[in-house]
Amino acid sequence: MPFNDIYPAADQVNEREYRLLQPLVYINEKENLNITVPPGFITDYGSVPQAFWNIIPPQGFLAAAYILHDWLYASEAFERTKCDWIFLCAMQELGASWVKRNTIYSAVRCFGGSVWKAHTPEGIAAARKLLTDYEDRFFKESA
User: Fold this and answer.
1) Cα separations (Å) of 123 from 41, 51, 52?
2) DSSP labels for 73-84?
3) CA–CA separation, 96 and 68 (whole Å)
4) Is residue 29 part of a domain?
5) What residue numbers bound the domain in which 135 lies?
6) Domains in the chain, number
7) Which pLDDT value is given to residue 116?
8) How confident is the model at residue 16 (pLDDT cuts 50, 70, 90)?
9) Does residue 2 form part of some domain?
10) Contact 18, 44 (CB under 8 A)
11) Per-residue pLDDT for 143 more than 60?
């Protein structure tokens, strides 16, 4: 399984956003990736227009992939094209059909640029600080 939990626990913060309560870990040995989304990260899962929720629900079995993608974007962990590629790989590993994952991937490639360009240095730093704070606590507790 590529994720430590495909339905990670989260608290609803408002109508569309949720706060992750535990770390979400994604491992892709083929791509040599080990990515941790820290607890406290806020996600909206899949940014799917409501008109398409019957076809592509914003949560469901792809929830972990949506959270991972939100984290990759918020933290700008990689260049945008690699963030989207990792998302495509994660959806495939979770069992999304070729049509579904490539439809979602195409939408992200077409419309995700506006989200990426709206990032501020403060927002990126805040996302990265969540991970640093989590790692500091984790290593302190396991020492």
Assistant:
1) 12, 29, 29
2) HHHT-S-HHHHH
3) 15
4) yes
5) 10-141
6) 1
7) 93
8) confident
9) no
10) yes
11) no
Residue 108 forms part of a structural domain: yes
pLDDT at 7 over 70: yes
Burial tier of 54 (Cβ tally within 10 Å: 0-12, 13-18, 19+): exposed
How long a stretch of residues is the chain?
A: 143
The string of pLDDT tens digits covering residues 30-61 is 889 999 999 999 999 877 666 666 666 667 88
Structure confidence by residue, pLDDT tens digits, 86-100: 999 999 999 999 999
CA-CA distance, 80 to 83, in Å (whole number)? 5
127 SS3 class:
helix
Rounded Cα distance between 53 and 55, Å, is: 5
Interatomic CA distance for residues 75 and 84, integer angstroms:
13
